[in-house]
Write a structure and sequence with these properties.
about 400 residues; alpha/beta; Rossmann fold; Argininosuccinate synthetase, chain A, domain 2; 5-stranded parallel sheet
Length: about 400
């Protein structure tokens, strides 16, 4: 089947910029560019003009920040999902949202194909295409990096092709970092980061101050929550987008949110990346502190176990699945009592708790006190310990008999 019209997920970066003329040269079809505003800020300036100059017939730019915050970041935040103990999933959580709206535009425009600029080595190709399969299985997927006609095997090749096709790009041979930015984070890959022994050069970091140069005076912020959703900063009600943006500023000022990790990609290899998630780092820590106050032990432990699975679902692009929807139903119920405030200190790369309070607190000073009390009968612990340790006592007796 000949493709007549393709909708391309377009960022304006090097890869998707050269893909527009490449698609026109190799598929001889109309190309429509789609860019999702998920908080990239200045990266979106002049994007429609640039896309059309490069050969796109149209360029959609949709402001999706509110939907991104409310329907994607918030459920993930409630779940406590963190991939491999360090990655707060900033790139992964945005992909299903972008792909969803790309599909909607393709249906509106009567397109017969969807395209992305993901490499055959990365996770994003899976995240985009699983969403395509879930929402538009009838549309053809074009992945130039996996096309045998694609002969741009490096960023240097892409830069040469861009020059040949007169495609305006901001990258250069001196700055070959591959970056992805949104409301939640910015990621950095490439350059010296491809050597896991090499420390990131100073130009890598964009959102966060060097912790050693951060203010000597600690900052403080009080975050208000309702059923696990951040609703205020320092007593002032704000929508979630503004809360994240403000915490990004505060966290960045104090050098909070830097992460350098080697992760296991879904496609089977290890990769090294540097991430900056200032606001997200503060919020994830604050949610944990509130949860520790309002959830009983068994509920909290089950949530922690399911958070690992939730992180895998997000990382692996399995957002539009029954399992993820079911986990959200569980997490929403679990986080119902998570209403209250958490006071955080921001100081030279660290976000640490100063206090937490909630009308649903399960903390009992009468039970926890080291002072004299009439509530807890300490002698009751004798029988508890005896029964709790009975299996170990039986096993020890067996060893002695042997």
């Amino acid at each position: 089947m000949k493709i007549k019209k393709i909708v391309l997920a377009y960022s304006g970066g090097l890869d998707t910029s050269v893909i527009i003329p490449w698609l026109k040269d190799n598929y001889h079809c109309e190309v429509i560019a789609f860019a999702a505003d998920v908080g990239q800020e200045e990266e979106l300036k002049g994007l429609p003009a640039k896309a059309k100059k490069t050969g796109a017939s149209k360029c959609y730019v949709l402001d999706l920040k509110k939907e991104f915050a409310e329907d994607y970041i918030l459920p993930m935040l409630k779940s406590g999902a963190v991939y491999e103990n360090k990655y707060l999933l900033g790139t992964a959580i945005a992909r299903p949202l972008i792909a969803k709206h790309q599909v909607a535009i393709a249906k509106r425009e009567g397109a017969d194909a969807l395209a992305h600029g993901c490499t055959g080595k990365g996770n994003d190709q899976v995240r985009f295409e699983l969403t395509f399969q879930a929402l538009a299985p009838n549309l053809k997927v074009v992945a130039p990096w996996r096309d045998p006609r694609w002969d741009l095997r490096s960023r240097e090749d892409a830069l040469r092709y861009a020059k040949q096709k007169k495609v305006p790009v901001s990258q250069s041979l001196k700055n070959l970092y591959s970056r992805d930015r949104n409301l939640w984070h910015i990621s950095h890959e490439g350059g010296e980061l491809e050597d896991p022994w090499a420390a990131p050069n100073k130009p890598v970091w964009m959102l966060t101050q060097d912790p050693q140069k951060a203010p000597a005076k600690p900052g403080q912020v009080t975050i208000g929550f309702r059923a696990g959703k951040p609703v205020s900063l320092n007593g002032i009600k704000m929508d979630l987008v503004k809360i994240i943006q403000r915490l990004n500023q505060l966290g960045g000022k104090h050098g909070i949110g830097r992460s350098d990790l080697v992760e296991n990609r879904l496609v089977g290899m290890k990769s090294r990346g540097a991430y900056e998630t200032p606001g997200g780092t503060i919020l994830v820590a604050a949610v944990h502190e509130l949860v520790s106050l309002v959830l009983d032990r068994e509920t909290m432990h089950v949530r922690n176990q399911l958070a690992l699975k939730y992180a895998d679902l997000v990382y692996n692009g399995q957002w539009f699945t029954h399992l993820r929807e079911s986990l959200d139903a569980f997490m929403n119920q679990v986080m119902e009592p998570a209403t209250g405030e958490v006071r955080m200190q921001l100081y030279r790369g660290l976000a640490t708790v100063l206090g937490r309070r909630s009308e649903n607190s399960l903390f009992s000073e009468a039970l926890a006190t080291f002072g004299e009390d009439d509530v807890y009968q300490q002698s009751d612990a004798t029988g508890f310990i005896s029964l709790y340790g009975l299996p170990m006592k039986v096993r020890a007796g067996l060893k002695r008999r042997k």
